Description:
By secondary structure, the chain is of the alpha/beta class. It contains 6 helices and 5 strands, in the order βαβαβαβαβαα. It has helices spanning 19-28, 53-63, 79-86, 98-114, 134-142, 153-163; strands spanning 7-12, 34-40, 70-75, 90-94, 119-123. It has a 5-stranded parallel β-sheet, with helices on both faces. The longest helix has 17 residues, at 98-114. The relative contact order is 0.20.
Amino acid sequence: MTAKSRLAIYPGSFDPITRGHEEIVRRALRIADRLIVAVAHQPSRSKQGMFSVDERLDMIGEVFADEPAVEAAEFDGLLVEFARQRGASIVVRGLRSVSDFEYEVQMALTNRQLDPAIETVFLAPDGRWSFLSASLVREIARLGGDASAFVSEPVQRRLRERSGSR
């Protein structure tokens, strides 16, 4: 990475990664030279996710196999610490709704207090994906529905395998 290149981090659970996430990743590459899609370990979550962290990392790698500027990584602990360790100066967050905005601004302001050198950039998704969430995709898959309109083929394949549907 050259002195002028910008590294951004797009953190989340990505359980699973959706087309909305993908769109945010591709748009984030307009403002950053490289992007880490960072899967957060969330031991405080009471419910178990559909996919393990390793499976999520594999799916991200498959979805962005054609994009060398995208890296999948995992992190545990404070996002700003992970950003410092990796040399990132930008955090990318997607905003779908007003409720997202309230939570994300609170997190951005807290992160700014923890490390003023790290900027948070909010990206609104394309209108096609403004309603989409990973939890909605998981629910469709659990109920035997077809989520292929909402996820890339490698993710859909894993959803079918996990849910036992065709």
